[in-house]
Specification:
The complex is a heterodimer of chains A (146) and B (501). Chain A is α+β, with helices and mostly antiparallel strands. Chain A contains five helices and eight strands, in the order βααββαββαββαβ. Classes of the chains: A alpha+beta (146), B alpha/beta (501).
Chain lengths: 146, 501
């Protein structure tokens, strides 16, 4: 199973992974429209910084995913690709997954129509390589077998 | 002297298309010179034009291409005599010191490479197709015997140690300290892959880079930083640096801020103290002294490694080179005045030295006329910009070339000339761990390999067009060069015929 490998030695703290994630999960998938016209989705990866270390963190798709354990109605589930994803149709926004996640990578979707539901990295099901990996200018994120 | 208030207009203007700017603030973090900032109250990204150095990092990283850097139009009344000097005068008046600058001489002196044309074969001397015929780019650097004796058992003549180069292009001396760790790593990997050499510069050699043994030329400069037995053993050749094209007659200076823990270990000096290389080697004041140093280094390495001497191209360079050849050096490196530097006083960089083309021609001519050309190999360095410069340099008499600035540009350098500040936004000439991460050695080494592979291909194509199938046959082959737009004296010094003759 391929996941996003994070190399903090190469992260240049540009936040372009976050930008790419927002664009990928927007309605129009157009960078200007996504940021200026639409209600902007939340970035599912976030860049952490503590000089000189910086790195982009997103869901690790754990084998023993604590978020799945914590989810009371099975909304947090493993899809056919083997990745841990959340079903927004059944998610009730109890945020137990957020409490359980050891990496702090599950967030609340702030858009009005889905206010408060859990959202997390889905490894871009429509793409071969996740948007964040493709956007990283310094190959700090790579999509590979671990 | 107290710094006075600055009244110098900005050199660049950062233009930002506010519609396209999505406030992602990528540019704010990427600008190491503090020229952009985010105003939360206005929700806008603004610029301090005066702080912009024109490195173009922000424009390159901007995901919406919202940023354009423009050169600021002269704000002074036009005066051909004074316009280019006003800023310099003001800076001296404000700071009370001579400005220190980086990179090579940027004055519009003639570029002789661009006034030399290469020959091509036609009917009588057919050209060679490099796709079908083997083309030899392999070069050996080092002292060659005047004649070779062969017996039934093989070669009877004892050969002096040689450097074997798969391509006649090496990476010039750039020290760890001036450049970041990742750049050195990339240079080492590329040199290893391409079967050529990178030069450690005067900064010593980090223990991590001992793995590049077999592809390193180690430098012994006047500061003797990091010179010890292991260091000499790891090098395939030893280079004594007497002068540097960008600052002939000037020593080196690495500011204390750049001397981090690892650099202090590598250079064998206290952390945070300025690394000053004196202008002269304090044991070399004559050719005889140089001979002693050359043989001391040969003795220390059991005569197994060629010793190179690097000099800047200056007025009597031919006589100096002759002396160096007679002092026992195996390789002479001639560094022209377009050569780069991490920091040099502006007046020195811009006004002292000679163009590499001229120096190379006169040195080769002098050594030939004295019958000692085979005693040394010549490496041309300083402002080699493309593969055709390499071909022309070899036709003028060089055995190989060093590239420095070209290699850095391949990695990402945009020639903003701010190396001396240590704030390189591209992570090349900095020791700030957060900035130096910006060079990923995996990517940088691939770029360098691509550059050398393309140049090698271009050189092969050109040699094929000239009907030459070995780089050795091109060396000193000045009949393949013709000058255009040069006066008679220049043609005479370069030793080439004018176009049409």
């Amino acid at each position: 199973m391929k996941v996003v490998k994070i190399k903090e030695d190469n992260c240049v703290y540009c936040h372009l992974c976050e930008v790419a994630c927002i664009v990928e999960h927007s309605q129009s998938k157009d960078i200007i429209k996504a940021f200026k016209r639409e209600e902007r989705p939340i970035a599912r990866c976030s860049v952490e910084f503590n000089y000189p270390v910086s790195l982009s963190v997103m869901c690790r798709h754990c084998d023993d995913a604590p978020c799945m354990e914590a989810c009371q109605n099975g909304s947090m589930h493993r899809d056919e690709r083997g990745y841990v994803v959340v079903n927004p149709d059944t998610c009730v926004g109890c945020w137990m997954c957020i409490m359980a996640c050891p990496y702090g990578v599950i967030k609340r979707d702030t858009r009005r129509e889905v206010w408060g539901l859990s959202t997390k990295c889905d490894l871009c099901p429509d793409r071969e390589i996740p948007a964040c990996v493709e956007a990283c200018p310094n190959e700090a994120l790579t999509f590979e077998e671990l | 002297m107290k710094n006075l208030k600055e009244y110098v207009p900005p050199s660049f203007i950062v233009e930002r298309d506010d519609y396209r700017c999505i406030r992602c603030k990528a540019c704010v973090e990427q600008c190491s010179f503090g020229a952009t900032f985010y105003d939360e109250d206005e929700d806008r990204v603004w610029n301090w034009n005066a702080k912009c150095v024109g490195c173009n990092r922000c424009a390159a990283i901007c995901p919406t291409e919202a940023i354009t850097i423009k050169r600021s139009a002269p704000t002074y009344r036009y005066n051909h005599n004074w316009n280019t000097h006003i800023d310099g005068l003001k800076k001296r008046a404000i700071f009370g010191g001579t400005p220190v600058v980086s990179m090579g001489n940027d004055k519009p002196y003639p570029i002789y490479w661009d006034h030399m044309l290469l020959n091509a074969s036609q009917v009588t001397n057919p050209s060679i197709d490099p796709l079908r015929e083997p083309m030899e780019l392999k070069t050996f650097l080092g002292r060659k015997p005047a004649k070779i004796e062969v017996s039934d058992d093989g070669l009877k003549t004892r050969l002096a140690p040689q450097l074997e180069l798969e391509v006649p292009i090496m990476f010039a001396a750039m020290s760890y300290g001036a450049l970041s760790y990742n750049v050195i790593e990339a240079l080492g990997r590329a040199a290893k892959y391409m079967g050529t050499y990178y030069n450690s510069g005067e900064g010593g050699l980090n223990k991590d880079h001992y793995k590049f043994k077999g592809n390193i030329i180690v430098q012994v400069a006047s500061g003797r930083f990091g010179v010890h037995k292991d260091y000499l053993d790891v090098g395939s050749a030893i280079e004594i640096k007497i002068g540097q094209g960008a600052k002939p007659g000037i020593g080196g200076h690495l500011p204390g801020e750049k001397v981090s823990e690892t650099i202090s270990e590598t250079r064998m000096m206290p952390k945070g103290s300025d690394a000053l290389s004196p202008a002269p080697h304090h044991d070399v004041y004559s050719i005889e002294d140089l001979r002693q140093l050359i043989f001391a280094l040969k003795e220390a390495t059991e005569y197994k490694k060629p010793v190179a001497v690097k000099i800047a191209a200056v007025h009597n360079v031919a006589a100096i080179a002759s002396g160096i050849a007679r002092a026992g050096a195996d390789i002479i490196v001639i560094d022209g005045f377009k050569g780069g530097t991490g920091a040099s006083p502006q007046v020195i960089r811009d006004n002292i030295g000679l163009p590499l083309e001229i120096a190379l021609a006169v040195v080769d001519e002098r050594l030939r006329s004295e019958g000692i050309r085979q005693d040394v190999s010549i490496v041309a360095s300083g402002g080699i910009r493309n593969s055709m410069d390499v071909v022309k340099a070899i036709a003028l008499g060089a055995d190989a070339v060093y590239i420095g600035t070209a290699a850095l540009i391949a990695i990402g350098c945009t020639m903003c000339q701010q190396c001396h500040t240590g704030k390189c936004a591209w992570g090349i000439s900095t020791q700030d761990p957060h900035l130096s991460k910006r060079v990923n050695p995996d990517i940088a080494s691939k770029r360098l390999i691509n550059l050398l592979e393309v140049w090698a291909l271009e050189i092969k194509e050109t040699m094929g067009a000239m009907g030459i199938n070995s780089i050795e046959s091109l060396r000193g082959n000045r009949l393949n060069l013709r000058g255009v737009g040069l006066n008679e004296k220049e043609l005479e010094i370069l030793g080439i015929l004018p176009a049409g003759e």
